[in-house]
Amino acid sequence: MKAITIRDEEARVKVAMANVPKPGVTGPEDVFIRVLCxxxxxxxxxxxxENFARYPGGKSEMVIGHELLxxxxxxxxxxxxxxxxxxxxxxRRPCSEETCANCxxxxxxxxxxxxxxxxxxxxxxxxxxxxxxxxxxxxxKVPNECMPYGxxxxxxxxxxxxxxxxxxxxxxxxWRPRTVLILGSVLWAFWRL
Length: 193
Ligand SMILES: [Zn+2]
Description:
Helix content: 10-25%
Number of strands: 13
CATH architecture: Alpha-Beta Complex
CATH superfamily: Medium-chain alcohol dehydrogenases, catalytic domain
Order of helices and strands: EEEHEEEEHEEEEHEE
Strand content: 25-35%
Radius of gyration: 18 Å
Largest sheet: 5 strands, antiparallel
Bound molecules: zinc ion
Strand order of the largest sheet: 10-3-5-6-11
């Protein structure tokens, strides 16, 4: 199948259209997804311009792209999904270290070891290709009516998470922010002086 890949060539990154193996379903929780569109963001720019990616073990080539919108083509019997479902995917997969309490509790966004995997960024192929296979526990169903903007679910989740963490930090005190400054997809709230 066709894919957009990056290749590490003497510390420079070469972007290319490539032919890569079509992925296959390996278990009853897997879903086989036809990719509809993939968003590109500042991380992809860093990957290409600053050679930011960490390639999968032993490889010098990787499919990029981590903001997916796709449609389920085949759904494993234990996936909880059905063909035709509109979906996106989480980006990060947990590390395997027993001592990482956050990864062991499904909070790999707060991985304590740094040995996580991120599709299209660190140690795993991404989504700019024709088909993707993923375990259903890393898939998020998107309402079909969100088709025109469903590719924004992943970047929106970053903003939501920033806000949730901000509120958790600030709940220890009386906090009534009135002014908000938005920088890219990072949202900061301030006291109004
Ligand atoms: Zn971890």
